[in-house]
Specification:
With 1404 residues, the protein is of the alpha/beta class. Among the domains are: 147 residues, P-loop containing nucleotide triphosphate hydrolases (Rossmann fold); 159 residues, P-loop containing nucleotide triphosphate hydrolases (Rossmann fold), CATH 3.40.50.300; 119 residues, no CATH class; 83 residues, 2-Layer Sandwich (Double Stranded RNA Binding Domain); 25 residues, no CATH class; 154 residues, Ribonuclease iii, N-terminal Endonuclease Domain, Chain A; 178 residues, Ribonuclease III domain (Ribonuclease iii, N-terminal Endonuclease Domain, Chain A, Orthogonal Bundle); 62 residues, Double Stranded RNA Binding Domain. The protein is 42% helix and 16% strand. It has 44 helices and 44 strands. A 7-stranded parallel beta sheet has the order 4-5-3-6-8-2-9, with helices on both faces. The protein has a 6-stranded parallel beta sheet with strand order 10-15-14-11-13-12, sandwiched between helices. A hairpin with a 5-residue loop joins β35 and β36. α9 packs antiparallel against α12, α10 packs parallel to α12 and α31 crosses α32. It is elongated. The protein starts with 6 loop residues before the first strand and ends with a helix. The N terminus is likely disordered.
């Protein structure tokens, strides 16, 4: 056999690679590793990792990004070591290090995710299974790896991932270049004692060398290392054999009888065979565990084990693993064991008085075994140590758990604290990796002094202060011995081996282990020049399936796992697990794999070597599944790839800062100094309530023609005392001069500014800004439309005198009113004001400001007979003259006290009249009048009546609605134009879809969202069902979610700029932009929606991604409700959801007569429908557990389709039947009509459960229980919420699958489906019969009244339960409920808490 001579890339030999503190043997090992593939065999603590780091430094120039695309891979056998080794690499290199382990979800990463990791990192630290999978699926190519490091490489035995990596990818003939391989171990042999035969040692060492293509480097002797590495003192700690204890032997017999009793009880439960076996297996395990503790550790240890195993802290009875009866049985057995222990407890023994002296005094009672007592005494021998750090290695997890308790009790006087640590795969108790890391860290800091550990800590744990290691149980092999000894890192530390006195074999084995290090070292050195040889492949090693296009491979050894992994991802429920069934005929030498009926492959048969039959069948199945597309070209299950794509969508970042669009029709960019023609729209205002102030009509003048359904529309506004109707209609065009436009702008800026701000300073600032803009040559985009009283317009022209007169006083305000041009009194009717002397008629109807208090008033006229010397009646009954009142209140001396006072009332405050009014009240007085001295008044506008002011107070709300409708029309036009479709969708319907509930208006998107959601789901499910004939329900569901999930819809919506159109918050008149005001940022920016349509960007606001998705669904509903399915599909195509309905009936392969399996005629009579293809009925009634080859499919695909069809049919039925319902009501009606409980009741009432084909004993019993409960219940409706019965979901599934079957059979005619299924659902829920789900109702009440609700999973008598607490008005209402599932338990608990709340709190 020729030696291995493969090309290996060389390192860069420079001083940069070495570290200044490296030891001589480390530098020698590095030199060796840089020249050839090397396995470093050195004692634990000798710094092997540092050699690996220096090797990485020497290869850094070949790894650094972005110049290089190669990587180094550092493999570690356990997850605990991933972070530890990665941190060492980061500390001593500048390379970018990535860390990978299974819990990160690496198993489900796709090629894109791996490529991102490869682009970002230069060294990848991972567990070996991850690399093996990545190589198998070609996510990482073998030639990409320049350095491959194997930590603890002695694990490369059997079928370990280390072996598979080397065999499958680097020992193949087509591999021409291998990476630099570097192995690290404290023992190249992982086997039991080899004795004194040197050939036996070399045989194992050479196998490792050949596999790794590497030669072992080691030191000549331990003496070389002793200078740097402290070696612990190995000592044998002898203990005596326990004498037989009659009482405990009798207890064992009692425990066995107790176990048999409970096993018999389990067999009488009538549960499914697999569950029965699981419970019995757990019972036997619990019994054996306690008996082991009794035999090996003593009575107290066994009692503690029983208590630990019966504790709720143990996770072996977690929700969903066993049914309630199984949990109760196991808990009952544990409780009975504890009772028996109490019966046989030695006298005087209890936790409170247990001590070493007590144990020794009662030695014959065997409270603890001699071995445990010896351990305690050995530890006490180190009480003089200032800072004890001890690791005790045990074989079993239960030993570690009980020793922690015993040591804590017996050694507490020494101030020592013990903790146990075990692998997270333990069947007894699973410690999280976070918990394990925390315990190790406490041990490092000295908070914990004693660690009782299984083999999990033998490799890799680095605690320099560990000064004592005890092998409570013997080492399994040489490697385990050396590794555990190496944990003692302190100088002068001890390594104690506990050996039973007289056990010469164990003593001899320990001595062999101690000498094995020297023997292995001698063999490595003596064969140092012997080249590596090619490894031997058996005939099965080379049997692989390779995908030509990608190079992905699956081997015989990996095929079994891949097949089982693929089947585990098929759809399942609580009644069956989709696993392949293997039938081996040893006589014929054949193996047949039968797959679940949701798998596209029904069976595979192979013939071959009997030992490898199952592997050969699995490999052939992998090949067939790949050919069918169920395994991708990287040999990953298709559903995993789909889930990866789904996760990519969910991970895609979303920016909550979204634009707020403004319709282009109300924005202008100039020119500013030219006459223009305006479109005139009359806004007629009518109030259906009495008011002492009348409203009049307003004219809106726009430079751009509005959409027809916006320029001619009607809507209502609600006020506290009635309705205000607004009718908008187009009245023609009107020509305005530049001067008229400027005056109108000033008028509306002043009037609306006063109404909005009530601030003279802001008014002055606005007018100055407008003047500067008019005089500036730079164009600025701003809200550019005019609003004038209707009486200003006569025969399509503007009355100049009214416009001029009203705005004439604004010149005084633009400059400081204290220096304005004030004329002297020349007429008897002149009155002195802040504007100077004005004629009395100017003040008859005007708008004034009183600067001394900043108020604005509408003046209706003079109060004849009242002046400054007149008396004013104050609230306290005192009388003062107006002159003295103003002096007292405002410090103002009236100079013209003889002037007649003015009658004014404060200007109206703006309100949002689009809000829903919950209650109405009587019309109140429109405001009390006040008396004002003219000299304190600054005239803003004159003439202007109080009616005009009152009318204009509605303008912001009116224009907000107009603006919203224009924006909706813009979006509609953008969509329609791209598809050359007429505007059949009203702008009001689009606006409803864009309006969120937060706006608090009479309409919002919820109804349309519900409608759109149902149609989207229906359309997508129908297309997927038709186009993906070989996809199972699980894959269809993932594909559906990729299209209709909130994340996907949000992404599509953002791509089409929908967030800018959304009305997200209620309208605030205080932030309304007055036409003519200059924007704060100086300019509104254009944003194009298409090549022809644009809007303006009004800034940013925050919108949640869920809200964007809701709006997209509501828009689908808007187009559906107004334009039908064609319009809705058109919108979805514009959005980016491609839908093509082929409506082709595909051929079906059904080998037997369907009528032999199901009473087709009876089912047809129940459905009032005759099937053209009866096999659809069989498929619709076949559960996944029914694994007969003559029924090729179960109901899951039809259920997938029928669920969507029924959901849409019922939603559109409710939407059409109750068109006037409030938006939230449709959601509640749909929720009450479309749910599993409702459908299950229908199935029971129709007797459909009798026709279900299944092979599940559990399902049979649950259906029988559901039927019995249903027959005894008084539930007359099918709404579901009132029922306290937990129905098997299968009953609901068949209603949906039958709907899907009818849909397919009828040529995808959903009306036929509704006609057939709706009688089963009668009586359908109505607004009158609607009852909220108790869970939703309780949440609503708590949210409304600010009650505090807490929900937690608890345990009552060993059974998982839901506990609800509601804190309301100082009282706490609590209820705990147990049921077969969490959903039902939560519903029943909510129902009970609701009842208590309603009985205790009135008018809730």
């Amino acid at each position: 056999m020729e030696p291995v001579t493969m090309k290996v890339c060389n390192a860069k030999n420079d001083s940069f690679a070495t570290l200044p503190f490296a030891r001589s043997y480390q530098l020698e090992a590095l030199e060796k590793a840089m020249k050839q593939n090397t396995i470093v065999f050195l004692e634990t603590g000798s710094g092997k990792t540092l050699i690996a780091v220096m090797l990485l430094r020497s290869y850094a120039h070949l790894l650094r990004r972005p110049a290089q695309s190669y990587i180094a891979v550092f493999l570690v056998p356990t997850v605990v070591l991933v972070t530890q080794q990665a941190e060492v690499i980061k500390m001593h290199t500048d390379l970018k290090v990535g860390k990978y382990w299974g819990d990160m979800g690496v198993d489900f990463w796709d090629a894109a995710t791996w490529q991102k990791e490869l682009d970002e990192h230069e060294v990848l630290v991972m567990t070996p299974k991850i690399l093996l999978d990545a190589l198998s699926h070609t996510y990482i190519k073998p030639n990409m790896i320049k350095v491959l490091i194997f930590d603890e490489c002695h694990n490369a035995r059997g079928n370990h991932p280390y072996v598979r990596i080397m065999k499958d990818f680097y020992h193949q003939s087509h591999i021409k270049e291998v990476p630099r391989i570097f192995g690290m171990t404290a023992s190249p042999i992982k086997a039991k004692a080899k004795g004194s035969d040197p050939d036996a040692y070399w045989k194992d060492i050479s196998l490792l060398e050949n596999l790794m293509m590497s030669k072992v480097y080691t030191c000549v002797s331990e003496a070389v290392l002793a200078e740097y590495v402290p070696f612990p003192n190995a000592k044998a700690q002898l203990y005596d054999k326990d004498a037989p204890n009659a009482s405990q032997m009798l207890l064992i017999d009692v425990l066995n009888m107790l176990r048999d009793k409970h096993i018999s009880a389990v067999r009488n439960l009538g549960v499914e065979e697999s569950i029965e076996q699981s419970i019995c297996s757990k019972l036997k395990k619990l019994s054996k565990t306690c008996q082991f503790c009794l035999d090996e550790l003593g009575f107290w240890a066994a009692l503690k084990a029983a208590e630990i195993l019966s504790s709720d802290k143990i996770d072996i009875f977690s929700w969903g693993e066993l049914d309630v009866r199984g949990e109760r049985t196991l808990k009952a057995f544990s409780a009975d064991m504890i009772k028996e222990f109490a019966t046989y407890k030695p006298s005087g023994v209890s936790d409170c008085n247990l001590s070493i002296s007590n144990v020794k005094a009662n030695k014959d009672a065997r409270i603890i075994s001699s071995k445990v007592l010896c351990l305690v005494e050995a530890l006490l021998g180190y009480r003089c140590l200032k800072d004890l750090r001890c690791i005790i290695f045990v074989e079993r997890v239960v030993t570690a758990m009980v020793l922690e308790t015993i040591l804590d009790q017996l050694l507490q006087s020494n101030g020592w604290r013990a903790r146990y640590i075990a692998g997270n795969q333990s069947a007894l108790k699973s410690q999280s990796r976070k918990e394990q890391n925390s315990i190790v860290e406490e041990f490092r800091r000295g908070v914990v002094n004693i660690l009782v550990a299984t083999s999990i800590l033998e490799e890799g744990l680095d605690v320099q202060s560990c000064n004592l290691v005890i092998r409570f149980d013997p080492s399994a092999n040489i490697c385990s011995f050396i590794q555990s000894r190496g944990r003692a890192r302190m100088l002068n530390s001890d390594f104690l081996l506990m050996v039973r006195r007289g056990d010469d074999f164990e003593l001899s084995r320990a001595k062999t282990y101690l000498s094995s290090g020297d023997q292995m070292r001698k063999e490595c050195l003596s064969h140092a020049v012997v080249p590596c040889q090619p490894i031997d492949f058996d005939e099965f090693d080379k049997i692989v399936y390779r995908v030509p296009s990608t190079g992905a491979i699956v081997t015989l050894s990996s095929s079994v796992n891949l097949i089982y992994f693929y089947c585990s991802r098929l759809p399942s429920d609580g009644y069956f697990k989709p696993t392949p069934r293997c039938i081996i005929d040893e006589d014929l030498g054949t193996c047949t794999l039968l797959f679940p009926n949701s798998c596209p492959l029904q069976s595979v048969s192979v013939k071959g070597n009997k030992k490898m039959l199952k592997h050969l069948a699995c490999l052939e199945a992998c090949k067939k599944l790949h050919e069918k597309g169920a395994l991708t070209d990287t040999l990953v299950p298709d559903i995993v790839v789909e889930e990866g794509l789904m996760k990519d969508i969910e991970r895609e970042p979303y920016n909550e800062d979204q634009s707020m669009y403004i319709p282009h029709e109300i924005v202008g960019e100039g020119p500013k100094h030219s006459s223009d023609e305006y479109y005139s729209y009359l806004m007629e205002l009518k109030q259906d309530f009495y008011s002492d102030i009348a409203v009049h009509d307003i004219i809106m003048l726009s430079r751009t023609e509005l959409a027809s359904d916006v320029g001619n529309m009607h809507f209502d506004m609600e006020v506290d005392w009635g309705n205000m109707s607004v009718n908008v209609r187009y009245t023609g065009r009107i020509h305005l001069t530049n001067e008229q436009v400027a005056l109108c702008r000033k008028f509306q800026v002043a009037l609306l500014g006063v109404l909005r701000d009530h601030d003279l300073g802001k008014l002055v600032e606005s007018l100055k800004g407008l003047e500067n803009w008019e005089n500036d040559d730079v164009d600025v985009s701003l809200y550019d439309y005019l609003l004038v009283p209707h009486q200003w317009v006569h025969q399509n022209s503007l009355a100049d005198w009214e416009c001029n007169s009203s705005a004439s006083f604004l010149r005084d305000i633009q400059s400081s009113f204290t220096i304005c041009n004030k004329r002297k009194c020349v007429q008897q009717d002149d009155v002195y004001t802040k504007n100077g002397y004005l004629h009395r008629s100017v003040l008859e109807k005007c708008l004034v400001c009183t600067p001394h208090n900043g108020y604005f008033y509408s003046i209706s006229g003079f109060l004849d007979g009242l002046n400054g010397n007149s008396f004013l009646s104050l609230k306290d009954g005192e009388f003062k003259t107006y002159k003295s009142y103003f002096k007292m209140r405002h410090g103002i001396d009236l100079q013209f006290q003889d002037q007649t006072l003015l009658c004014g009332r404060q200007v109206f405050r703006l309100r949002n009249y689009l809000l829903r009014c919950k209650t109405r009240r009587e019309r109140e007085s429109s405001g009390a009048s006040v008396e004002l001295p003219p000299e304190l008044c600054l005239v803003i506008l004159s003439p202007i009546s109080v009616a005009t002011l009152y009318t204009f107070s509605f303008i912001p709300s009116i224009m907000h609605r107009v603006e919203s409708l224009l924006l909706s029309a813009n979006l509609r036009s953008t969509i329609m134009t791209e598809h050359c479709t007429q505007n059949v969708i009203p702008a009001t319907k689009v606006l409803e879809a864009l309006t969120t509930k937060r706006c608090q208006e009479k309409f919002h998107l919820e109804s349309l969202e519900t409608l759109g959601d149902s149609f989207l789901k229906y359309a997508v499910c129908q297309q997927l069902f038709e186009s993906c004939q070989n996809n199972h329900e699980g894959l269809l569901s993932i594909k559906k979610e990729r299209i209709i999930s909130n994340a996907a819809l949000c992404k599509l919506g953002c791509q089409r700029k929908i967030p800018g159109f959304i009305r997200y918050d209620s309208f605030d008149p205080k932030t309304w932009m007055i036409p003519g005001n200059i924007p704060a940022n100086g300019r509104l920016k254009k944003e194009y929606l298409s090549s022809t349509f644009f809007v303006y960007n009004g800034g940013l606001r925050k919108i949640k991604s869920k809200r964007v998705a809701d709006v997209v669904e509501a828009l689908i509903g808007a187009f559906l409700s107004s334009g039908g399915e064609a319009a809705s599909i058109m919108f979805m195509k514009w959005l980016g959801i491609k839908l093509e309905f082929s409506l082709v009936t595909h051929p079906r392969n059904f080998p037997v007569n369907p009528r032999m399996l199901v009473n087709i005629t009876h089912v047809e009579s129940l459905l009032n429908y005759s099937f053209k293809d009866p096999s659809l009925v069989v498929e619709a009634l076949t559960h996944g557990s029914y694994l007969l080859p003559e029924v090729p499919r179960c109901y899951q695909r039809l259920e997938f389709l029928g669920d969507a069809v029924l959901d849409h049919l019922i939603t559109i039925h409710l939407y059409s039947k109750y068109p006037e319902m409030t938006p939230g009501l449709l959601t509640d009606l749909r929720s009450a009509s479309v749910n599993n409980e409702c459908y299950a009741l229908c199935a029971l009432r129709a007797g459909l459960h009798k026709h279900i084909l299944h092979a599940s004993q559990t399902l049979y019993k649950q259906m029988a229980a559901a039927v019995a409960s249903f027959e005894q219940s008084s539930v007359e409706t099918t709404f579901g919420w009132e029922s306290e019965i937990s129905f098997p979901k299968v009953l609901a599934d068949i209603i949906e699958s039958l709907a899907g079957a009818i849909f397919v059979d009828s040529g995808f005619n959903k009306e036929v489906v509704f006609k057939s299924i709706s009688p089963l659902l009668e009586p359908l829920v109505t607004p009158e019969t609607l009852k909220l789900n108790p869970i939703r109702e309780l949440h609503f009440i708590c949210q409304k009244h600010h009650y505090i609700m807490k929900k937690k999973k608890t345990r009552e008598n060993g059974v998982a339960s839901i506990k609800l607490e509601v804190e309301a008005n100082g009282s706490v209402y609590t209820h705990t409920c147990t049921a077969s599932n969490k959903e039902m338990a939560t519903k029943l608990a909510s129902k009970a808490v609701l009842k208590s709340l309603k009985e205790s709190i009135e008018n809730l």
